[in-house]
């Protein structure tokens, strides 16, 4: 028996029941079975090879469900492609898994531009209204096809799902048939799905919802597809479309409760509200149960062991002491706690959570070394730290890498998060550690307050201290209007930790909500405001007359149009302004010293003094952005970008030379300029993100090879940002020339007001002894 057989049997038992309720209409089980069989026949005709991959990049829809079921029905391997991911992320997965067929929403076609593989479009037409094959046309062409059959072992792959990448580079997890079979049976047993159930698809099929697709259908239930996402759409579906069951991240649960006028009456038939993807603090559990009633449930798992290694049913939540747990072990698996030496620990002792059994993956796609690290003997090493009590309940402490060791004491972030979550003003929080000279690591927290709520840093620190004592109390609180999240809603702890490290170097006002460092959408942002004059003797690409430019174009707009050969967007101007500001002034650098000394010698030759400073913008300093950009291009073009980044880092270590764009003799341990620039890029949805991602990969490789963190420096970040807007590597140093020229003029102004050239000369002469021709110093 295969996972798809649960659906075939349900279609035979309940042919007249509604299987899908979508905005475009409803589909009965018998009709859905016919559509799946027809499309499966079409997929097999396109590629008869069993176990070939089918990538699906689409938002939730009836067509998406049909395509997924059809792939399963003909022995293909499903590769989910999140349409909210960036084009480089999508392309990396496609290049790694090599799907022979791609099912694509027309709106997502751009994400797969240039990728190999036959296209099937999930809408009624393909790109630009042409006649490319669609799900509907293929179903019509293969109408009446028999259900396909195939014979594969239980260990054969059913899906390759990529990890979220919040703890490292995403990896392709091979989920075998046996894991899907175990998941289906456990979901049905855990939640008691029935024919009357109507599952609200609040989460993407590419992620959590996929594990509920077949369990609901196996029991004759109905999947309710939403026309749009968001809390209001989910509430409407429960209120008007009879929703009984739903899986969603905790963030969406909180958003539903915060909707204007929200009450339990909005969810009249709700009987199972299952959350996952992130923990829910006990105080939040209390609030959710008070709001929705005794319907809450959760599971524990990961992509490597799909979702349901343990389960907490609504009845488990009746005892408050269970609220910090994630449930007890489900069927077909064992869950245990292991010490670093491989010894299994008794009840109550903290160690790494390990699992074995049918739910566990086969391995990572084409990553044998990573597979060997994670699957040791019979056990999957989850990377999570926790304990199991004497009743068999699993309590998670944190990811192993998130443990904070401060002053020799272990602090588990989840304990601190649970304490902070009890404060009435706290909506959500993330606790982490940053390097600290005194304590080794200092506990810090990022907090998002409830709308309209107020709380000071001192108040929250005192609140935690009263409950946990001084060791576990955060040294600082960073307030956010909205915590940064991954595409699937997980809080990005690495991002908030990174920003906190920058704050430690360049303190900011801690009581104000932290916002993304986007530049204003003004035609005169900091640098352009200084340079609103326009070119006076240059043939311009579109306007031949100087008068056409005056008052209409800023210097930056004109410059970018010349360099990029296109009209710059707002994002191009914001990125360029940020880069120019960073490159304009670097203190008493070699270029500034050269300018000051030349000006001291020849004050009548201002342009010569500036030129001398510009000659010092060489490959050892600012010019390293070109070298770094070349490395980012290499990583982006590589078949295995992570391996390429590692090779680059190892090569430079062997040569005993720094990797361009990394390290700084003054800015230690973090170059705040670099991370502010990267924050700006991450906040711009129009940017492709491939250069920033390549830089992040290179940063991880540099740290791994050095076995210590080495900061990205300003030139590395500049290389990534200029690459994001399409600036060619060969001209990147020109931006340093443009910006530094303005900075060097400012140095000359300072030199006029407070001369330093003579002091620099005298200092050097005294510091370096003069040696005469006989080798004697004097």
Categorize the overall geometry. Answer: globular
Bin the helical content. Answer: 25-40%
Structural class: alpha/beta
- Helical segment count: 27
The major pleated sheet works out as:
9 strands, mixed
Beta-strand segment tally: 26
CATH superfamily of the largest domain: ANL, N-terminal domain
What is the fold-level CATH name, i.e. the topology of the largest domain? Rossmann fold
Low-confidence parts lasting 5 or more residues at pLDDT below 50?
124-130, 506-547
Measured between the Cα atoms of the first and last residue, the distance is 92 Å
Radius of gyration: 30 Å
The CATH architecture assignment of the largest domain turns out to be 3-Layer(aba) Sandwich
Q: Strand sequence of the main sheet, in spatial order?
A: 2-1-10-9-11-12-13-14-15
Q: Tell me the number of structural domains.
A: 5
- The fraction of residues assigned to DSSP E strands is 15-25%
> What CATH first level of the largest domain would be assigned?
Alpha Beta
The mean pLDDT is 86
């Amino acid at each position: 028996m295969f996972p798809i057989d649960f659906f075939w049997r349900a279609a035979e038992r309940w042919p007249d029941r509604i299987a899908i309720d979508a905005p475009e209409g409803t589909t009965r089980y018998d009709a859905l079975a016919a559509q799946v069989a027809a499309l499966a026949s079409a997929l097999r005709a396109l590629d008869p090879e069993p176990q070939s991959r089918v990538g699906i990049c689409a938002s939730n829809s009836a067509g998406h469900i049909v395509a997924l079921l059809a792939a399963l029905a003909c022995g293909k391997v499903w590769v989910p492609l999140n349409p909210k991911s960036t084009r480089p992320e999508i392309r990396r997965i496609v290049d790694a898994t090599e799907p022979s067929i791609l099912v694509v929403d027309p709106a997502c076609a751009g994400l797969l531009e240039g990728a190999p593989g036959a296209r099937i479009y999930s809408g009624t037409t393909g790109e630009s209204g042409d006649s490319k094959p669609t799900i509907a046309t293929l179903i019509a062409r293969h109408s009446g096809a028999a259900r396909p059959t195939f014979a594969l072992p239980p260990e054969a792959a059913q899906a390759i799902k990529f990890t979220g990448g919040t703890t490292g580079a995403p990896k392709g997890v091979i989920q075998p048939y046996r894991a899907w079979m175990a998941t289906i049976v456990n979901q049905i047993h855990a939640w008691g799905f029935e024919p009357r159930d109507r599952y609200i698809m609040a989460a993407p099929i590419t992620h959590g919802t996929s594990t509920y697709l077949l369990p609901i259908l196996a029991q004759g239930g109905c999947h309710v597809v939403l026309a749009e996402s968001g809390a209001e759409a989910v509430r409407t579906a429960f209120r008007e479309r009879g929703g009984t069951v739903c899986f969603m991240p905790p963030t969406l649960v909180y958003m539903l409760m915060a909707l204007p006028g929200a009450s339990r009456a909005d969810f009249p038939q709700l009987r199972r509200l299952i959350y996952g993807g992130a923990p829910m603090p006990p105080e939040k559990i209390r609030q959710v149960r008070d709001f929705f009633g005794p319907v809450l449930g959760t599971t524990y798992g990961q992509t490597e062991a799909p979702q349901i290694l343990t389960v907490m049913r609504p009845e488990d939540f009746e005892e408050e002491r269970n609220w910090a747990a994630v449930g007890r072990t489900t069927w077909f698996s064992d869950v245990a706690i292991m010490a670093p030496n491989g010894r299994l620990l008794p009840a109550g002792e903290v160690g790494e959570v390990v699992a074995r059994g049918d739910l566990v993956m086969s391995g990572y796609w084409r990553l044998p070394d990573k597979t060997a690290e994670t699957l040791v003997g019979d056990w999957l090493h989850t990377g999570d730290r926790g304990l199991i009590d004497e009743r068999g309940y699993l309590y998670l402490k944190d990811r192993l890498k998130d443990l904070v060791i401060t002053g020799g004491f272990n602090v588990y972030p989840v304990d601190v998060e649970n304490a902070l979550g009890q404060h009435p003003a706290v909506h959500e929080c993330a606790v982490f550690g940053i390097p600290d000279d005194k304590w080794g690591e200092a506990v810090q927290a990022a907090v998002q307050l409830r709308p309209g709520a107020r709380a000071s840093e001192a108040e929250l620190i005192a609140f935690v201290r009263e409950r946990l004592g001084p060791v576990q109390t955060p040294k600082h609180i960073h307030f956010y209007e909205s915590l940064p999240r991954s595409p699937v809603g997980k809080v990005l702890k690495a991002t908030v930790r990174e920003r906190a490290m920058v704050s430690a170097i360049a303190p900011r006002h801690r009581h104000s909500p932290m916002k993304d460092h986007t530049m204003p959408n003004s035609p005169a942002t900091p640098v352009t405001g200084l340079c609103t004059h326009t070119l006076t003797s240059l043939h311009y690409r579109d306007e031949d007359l100087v008068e056409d430019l005056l008052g209409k174009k800023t210097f930056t707009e004109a410059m970018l149009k010349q360099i990029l050969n296109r009209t710059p967007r707002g994002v191009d101007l914001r990125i360029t302004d940020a880069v120019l500001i960073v490159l304009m002034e670097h203190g008493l650098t070699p270029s500034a010293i050269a300018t000051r000394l030349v000006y001291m010698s020849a004050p009548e030759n201002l342009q010569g003094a500036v030129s001398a400073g510009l000659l010092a913008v060489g490959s050892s300093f600012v010019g390293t952005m070109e070298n770094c950009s070349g490395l980012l291009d290499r990583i982006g073009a590589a078949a295995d970008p992570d391996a390429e980044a590692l090779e680059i880092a190892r090569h430079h270590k062997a040569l005993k030379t720094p990797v361009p764009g990394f390290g700084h003799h003054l800015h230690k341990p973090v170059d705040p300029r670099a991370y502010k620039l990267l924050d700006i890029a991450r906040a711009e949805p129009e940017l492709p993100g491939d250069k920033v991602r390549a830089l992040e990969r290179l940063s991880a490789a540099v740290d791994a090879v050095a076995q210590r963190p080495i900061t990205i420096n300003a030139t590395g970040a500049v290389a990534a940002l200029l690459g994001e807007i399409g600036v060619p590597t060969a001209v990147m140093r020109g931006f340093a020339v443009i910006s530094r020229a303005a900075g060097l003029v400012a140095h000359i102004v300072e030199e006029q007001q407070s001369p330093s050239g003579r002091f620099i000369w005298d200092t050097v002469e005294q510091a370096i002894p003069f040696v005469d021709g006989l080798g004697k110093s004097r």
